[in-house]
Each structure stands twice: as structure tokens, then as C-alpha cells.
Prior knowledge:
With 357 residues, the protein is an alpha+beta fold. The protein contains six helices and 16 strands. It is extended and about 110 Å long.
Amino acid sequence: MWKRGLTGYFRKGSINKMSDKISSYLSKSLIVLAVLIFGFFIFSSNSVLRSLEDFSLLASAVDSGQELFVAGSSNIARESPNMNFVQNNSLVAVAPPMTIDVNTLGSMIGGIEEDDGTRKEILEYIVEPDDTLSTIADKFDISLSTILIANDLGSKSTIKPGQKLIILPVTGVIYHVKNGDTLGDIAKTYKGKTTEIITVNNLSGEGNIFVGDILVIPNGKIQVSGSSAYTANIPVGSSYFIAPLAKYTITQGLHWYNAIDFAAPCGTPIYAAAAGVIQRVEYGWNGGAGNYLRILHPNGVVTMYGHVQKSLVVPGQNVSQGERIALVGGKPGTTGAGISTGCHVHFDVRGARNPFQ
């Protein structure tokens, strides 16, 4: 039996049946292939149409003068692509299934705030030749009394080139929050409006305030000169504070607010200048301060550490003097750098003299 040829194993009609099966398989394969080709064609056509539609939207936006990278068109999703490697040799952008609003984008790239046409930051202005207090007030569209009160000046005070002046964003007064203060009481005392105080100072809807906060009271009234630009009400011993960095270079002397800038490489540890409780940890633009944290000390003084790369502590945490609390940041273009020209920590003292001035 094993010596018979292969043809001997086929019965009558076997070849015909095999031929029919092959034909059937080929027909089904061709149908599946046709469906796939048709689906691919439809998908490609839709993609092309969508691309053309997006291009048309972009062209319209450009023609109308829209600021796509600030305001954006509601018809165009703003996405942040992830960079992935393909086969370890090609880098491609893959958009995640999420959109990022303008405020988040601003925080990511170092701070672009949504512009509503109103400045909300307190500025430090350097007097130029030919400046007068009146011309400076006109330049910033605030009242003369606002400049006088903020800088502890009188009506007969004179200024000189190179002098630093505190410039509020609106006409009004500055107030330094103390223990026991409430927003309602502050508004009543200075004849301001709670809603305006919340708006100008970017407070939460509840208007939460903390000891050491510096508030601008829009259209606030005061009969005598206000607190000086750098208050020093609480006596502090010369050894109470230590420098926030082990090794540093002071790159900017006393400036707003009662601050000294200590430069060091990004990532350098920042230490608590004195024992206390972590009062606030804030990430983002924060009026140019970038990521920052504050410590409330037992004597009521508050220290602030601005332009940090990363906080190592959380609000409510007790820290000892010299304990690591954060890492130096401030590299331009990095997240939370704020207004900065290089890696450093902005160290300010609220309620006492800055010992490093």
C-alpha cells in the first residue's frame, strides 16, 4: 500500500472538492481585503477633510488677528504632546487624550498669565532722570498719594535717579496681614470693597488670608502714612536667622519685598532660616515669584523662599532651623521659575529686618 503513488490515495471527485474549497477561501479573502481597503480610504478621506478644516480655521484665525497661543480658538484643541521613541531610533510626538488650558500652559513654560488688561503685581520702579513723583504716578495711572503712602514719603519729599519706589497696580494702599485679621475687617478699616480686594490680590473665592500676606486695598483710604516698604516691627537677634543656602553668592541686595537674592546652582538644597511651621506652598506664576513656600516662625515673623524648583515640605509641617525645605530653581523657561534671570532663591523677611541686607 505504501508503494502506491500519491494519485492512488484520491477517490473520485476529491480533486474537485479541494478546488472548490480553495476557490471559496480565495473569494472570502478578497472580500475581506476589499473591505479593509475601502475602510482605509474612508478614514484617509476624513482625515484629509479634517486637516483641511483645521487649516481653514487657522487661516481664518490668522486673518482675523487672533492670538492663537494666548487666547486660542475654541474650535482648536490645545494639546501637549508626549515625545516617544519608536524602535529606539526615531522620536515622534504623541498627543495624549487631554487638553491644556492657557493658565496651565503659562505655568508650564514659566509664567504667562491670562491678560485681562489689569496689572495685579506690585512693581519696584527705579527712578530715572527727570522723573518726578507726579510724572511717575501718571505713568502708572495711579494717584500721587498711593505712591507717597506706599513709600513712606511726604508731600514735600524729593526723589533722585536710581532710587527704588514701590508701585501698586491700582490706586490704593498696602496692608500687611497680622494675626487675627479678617478680610472683612481690613476692608472696613480702609474703606475698601472685599470683592475688589479678592480680585486684585488673586485670592480664593473664600478670601483666605494668612499672616504675612501683603494685600493691595483698591481705593483704600488712610489718614497717616502707611507701613514702610520694609517693615521691621519685631526685634530679632542677629543669630535668629541663618542663610537659606550653605554656599551662595548674593546677586541682588535689598529689594521688594525686604528680600535678598542668593544665587546657587539649580537643585541646591534650601534650608529653613529658623524653626517654624510651613504656612504656604504655592506652585505656578504667583505674580512673578514662581514656586514658593513660606514659614511662620514662633515670634510672628514670616520668611518666604521664592523661585524654588521643588518643595520638600507641606503646609502645616513643623521644621527645624537648618532643615532642608526645598531645592533652588529659577532657571528661565522652567516650570515655576517666575520672573528670574538665573538659578537663585528669593529670601524675604516679613515683620522684621532682613539680617542679610
